[in-house]
Amino acid sequence: MDYDPRAVEGKWREQWAEEGLYEATPDDREEATFITVAYPYPSGGMHIGHARTYTVPDVYARYRRQQGDNVLFPLGWHVTGTPIIGAVERLKKGEEKQLSVLRDTYNVPEETLQDLETPMGFARYFIEEHYKKNMKALGLSIDWRREFTTNDERYSKFITWQYETLRERGLLEKGLHPVKFCTNEQNPVTTHDLLEGETAEFQEYTLVKFRSGDIVLPMATLRPETVHGVTNAYVQPDGAYRRTLVDGEEWIVSVEAVEKLRLQERDVEVTEELTGEDLIGTFVTNPVTDEDVLILPADFVDTDNATGVVMSVPAHSPDDWVALEEAKADTARMESFGIDPADVKAIEPRAILTVEGYGEFPAKDAVEEHGITSSDDPALEEATKDVYNREFHAGKLSDMYGEYAGEIVEHVRDDLKAHYQSQGAFDAMYEFSEEVICRCGGVVEVAKQDTWFLRYNDEDWKQKTKEAIADLDAIPENTREQYLHTVDWLNEWPCIRNYGLGTRLPWDTDFVIEPLSDSTIYMAYYTIAHRIQDVPPEELTREFFDTLLLDEGDDEKALDLREEWDYWYPVDYRCSGNDLISNHLTFYLFHHAELFEQPKQPQGITIMGMGLLEGDKMSSSKGHVVLPAEAIEAYGADTVRLFLLNSAEPWQDYDWRAEQVESTRNQLDRFWMRAQEIIADDAGEKELKHVDRWLLAKLQDTVETTTEALDRFETRTASQAAFYSFEEQLRWYRRRADLERPGAKWTLRKVLETRLRLLAPIVPFLTNELHEQLTGTSVEKSAWPAVEAEFVRTETEVREQLVSRLTDDIQDIVNVTDSNPETIRIYTAADWKYTVFDEVVETGTNIGQVMGKVMQHESLREKGNQVNDLVQTLVDVVRGRDDDVLAAMSELDEFEVYEDAARFFGAEFDADIELYREGEDAYDPADKARHAEPFRPAIHLE
Fold first, then answer.
1. Least reliable range by pLDDT among 648-652, 791-795, 848-852, 878-882
2. Gyration radius of the chain's alpha carbons
3. Which terminal residue of the chain has fewer beta carbons within 10 Å of its beta carbon, N or C?
4. Average pLDDT score over the chain
């Protein structure tokens, strides 16, 4: 019977649905496992990257069920915020790019497009027609009774309770705060709303207030300590600038800066339009040194960055060093702007600090070290970073800094900045570390708004969160430091926006709680989502949720639901993207740490990497995606699952490549056909020979490896062990064993049944079907396999490893000599060589100590250098091997191992096999026997 994924998968999907197999209900089982994954945001369709995200936790859920746990794996839908609204608006406007994504990428029928012209109509289409259909097709074992959307009325009551509680505890405040602001939508946005710049950070620039008379030309810098080193300034000759009243003071800034300053709560009034050329050649005064510096033209100045006026510190900035050298050399250009080239050549770098490893001018040294010759050299960015980092952490300020002289920059930068700011020499503005674009296509700028924000800077709250992180099973472990780092740098977090889907701020309903802020403890809602529907929304009061979640109150309906909450909580594992450590996942830890006692804190978090498609980043807008439905249609759901789970560990990035997916399908075909042969054959008898016991021993290794891997979410390790690596063991077994023996039939059947149980979390459709054919029951009703002690035989594995190695050695000689031997002579080592081996095992791998013991044997002393050479060889053999392996090696008779396998060697190489022990009248026409070593026999082909 051929492997037909459609038939197999259709059968089991229908059966699971009919049985309600994954509808989790509290019972008397001791172990309850609650696993969650980031709920999808249905502003578009599901692609193959999402398939991997949701399949990883499914593997763990299935694995724990086979371990006997009662498992809850629920899923809801995140619709809070503006991306869906933006998508709808673009659709209604008939934007061709949006229509192309819907029609061509996600195959939305033309007649259905009008159904998507409301936010929830749009969301519901992709929930039902993409996510749920694909998830069911993939076999995800989700309890669908508990699904909800984040604008459901009852869920909003739950969010309202959370924010009223946090406000009551003093962890919500109102005040001016920098926010990400979409200039198109005129609305604050968060990471989930962004098309580009998701990792951008707020940067507070110091504005050094250079002056020309009463006019300020503010120059932005992230290094305010370098103000003593400014030698000149730059503007963009073709740039648009404006004379502007800023809070009553006259400034000249770029036209882009005018809008940025307005957004940052400055009182701004434009009084005159200027160009960069109007400013070139003028002098401005450094507010700290009172020295005049010349403004030069520079095409590298970006008027959209900060103020559009740039100060130059050539001694300490490789960029500025190169730019000044180029300006000095380009006399014709300087003259074209009315600048005397002599004035430019007179500009000299000024050192303002010393740092070990650099000379007087660190920028000059870095430029020469990197071989930089022009301002467009890509190495300039790296050189600049190197100088900045070294000067920040180790640079000592020079005498010109007075009370700060001799101090390390890192230690005094903030104090120095505050000092000059108090004197009126410095101001400040915010800018992003990179360009930020909203999903609506609008440019995102930093704005200061009077907003409600979460006080993640509260030290007590930070400490509670760090304690939660200390108890967390962070997978992989190196992410623990990332959580702690995020906790350290997190400050106030604006938690509202002006409009969008979601829950209204309960005490100020003009605002909506933003997406990241309403998704911090929603996992708790899953526990009662299907039952809370029976409670009228008006009864979902503070007392209800206090009773349910804090055990503070006596609301009867809440007390009834609390039993289910207590049964499932805390979350055992949460799966989410690596990029969410810096926001959602750390917020998740913050809010749990504050609202719930230690027993309800998150137990573990597994993070996941990103996906590529044929080597390139997936992009819905460019149509560079694979839809799960199409992949499942082409290859089958189990193929899709196996490829995604085996391509990399969950936290590593992976690459979907059609050729490799096709290969995975072919491997499952072969697995199916081999299984059919075993199922169709008789069961055999448990009459085991050495090679059967060897395969069963390898099976126990595989059970152990797969179990340990799935305990740690290592899906690649698990699939490699249970599927790919064991196929190698089976290939060897088929070469070695008489497959018609009853013992071999019994062994293959035993192996198949165990492997089906091991592979069930990874390829559930195929394994359920084959297990039912083999045993009469589905694999999900069979326990996870345990290591069977009767088959754990180190000696058996060592014996077979020797046979395998000798086979390879003979084959290597055959290949090298291009021969077809009629006779193969095998020589095992002389007894004295095994004595040396035993001494190495007993003494250890210190060659001197081993030689001391060996030379106590009079018979060995006579052999001199032979013994010395052998000791060094055997030390390498022993090093790194387990004690039980070494004990087995010491106890076995190597000659007997090869004697038992002689018939196999003869059949493998179609040759006569002669076996000899070195030194026992061995027939040795080529003088090979003397080269024999323990566990590495000498070989002669004839």
1. 848-852
2. 36
3. N
4. 94
Q: How far apart are CA 43 and CA 885, in angstroms?
A: 57
- What is the rounded CA–CA span in Å between residue 835 and residue 585? 60
Q: Tokens in use for 338?
A: 């009315």
CB 937 within 8 A of CB 827: yes
DSSP per-residue codes, 355-375 = -TT--S-HHHHHHHHTT--ST
Euclidean distance between CA atoms 750 and 225, whole angstroms = 73
> Would you state the structure tokens that stand for residue 216, as one six-digit string?
């300020």
Q: Where are the beta strands (DSSP E) in 26-146?
A: 32-37, 70-72
pTM above 0.85, yes or no: no
8 A C-beta contact, residue 106 and residue 44: yes
**CA 483, 486, 488, 492 torsion: positive or negative?**
negative
Segment holding 675, helix H or strand E: helix 658-680
Grouping H, G, I as helix, E, B as strand and the rest as coil, residue 338 is coil
Query: Length of the chain in residues, anyone?
Result: 942
Q: Which of 73, 108, 98 is nearest to 629 (CA)?
A: 108
Task: Give bridge partners of residue 428 from the DSSP assignment.
Answer: 206
Higher-pLDDT residue of 637 and 180 is 637
Looking at this protein, which amino acid is placed at residue 155? Y
What is 842-877 written as a DSSP string?
HH-S-HHHHHHHHTTSHHHHTTTHHHHHHHHHHHHH
CA distance 875 to 868: 11
Tokens of 440: 């609506």
DSSP per position, 452-513? EEEETT-HHHHHHHHHHHHT-EEESTTHHHHHHHHHHH--EEE-EESS-BSPBPTT-TTSEE
Q: CA-based angle 291:293:297, to the nearest 5?
A: 170
Name the CA dihedral angle for 364, 369, 371, 372, rounded to a multiple of 10 degrees.
-40
User: Cβ neighbours of residue 648 under 8 Å, at least 6 residues apart?
Assistant: 609, 654, 716
For tokens 């946090």, what's the residue? 166
CA angle 192, 193, 194 (to 5 degrees): 95
DSSP 8-state assignment for residue 195: E
Report pLDDT digits (tens) over 350-396.
999 999 989 999 999 999 999 998 988 889 989 999 999 999 989 99
State residue 35 phi and psi, 5-degree precision.
-125, 135
What is the torsion angle, in degrees rounded to the nearest 10, for the CA atoms of residue 474, residue 476, residue 478 and residue 479? -50
Amino acid sitting at position 785: P
Distance, in Å, from the CA atom of 942 to the CA atom of 937, rounded to the nearest integer, reads 16
**Integer angstrom CA distances of residue 658 from 56, 131, 533, 613:** 20, 22, 44, 9
Residue-level pLDDT at 866 = 87
φ/ψ bin of 371: left (φ > 0), alpha (ψ from -120 to 50), beta (otherwise): left
- The C-alpha atoms of residue 876 and residue 882 are separated, in whole angstroms, by 13
Which residues lie below 8 Å from residue 314, measured CB to CB, with a gap of 6+?
Answer: 229, 231, 320, 321, 323, 324, 347, 349, 361, 363
Instruction: Specify burial of residue 19 (Cβ count, 10 A radius: 0-12, 13-18, 19+).
Output: exposed
Interior/surface letters 469-508, b for 16+ CB within 10 angstroms, e for the rest: beebbbbbeebbebbbebbeebebbbbbbeebbbbebbee
Task: Please work out, in degrees rounded to the nearest 5, the angle formed at the alpha carbon of residue 514 by the alpha carbons of 512 and 519.
Answer: 120
Which candidate, 810, 846, 837, places its Cα nearest to that of 940? 810
CA atoms within 13 A on the CB side of 729: 27
Distance CA 523, CA 469 (A): 18
Q: What does DSSP assign to residue 648?
A: S
Would you call 565 helix, strand, or coil by DSSP? helix
Q: Which two tokens stand for residue 167?
A: 């406000």
Token digits for 474?
């962070």
* Dihedral Cα 328, 332, 333, 338, nearest 10 deg: 100
Task: Tell me which amino acid residue 470 is.
Answer: A
State how far the alpha carbon of 436 is from the alpha carbons of 222, 443, 451, in Å: 19, 6, 21
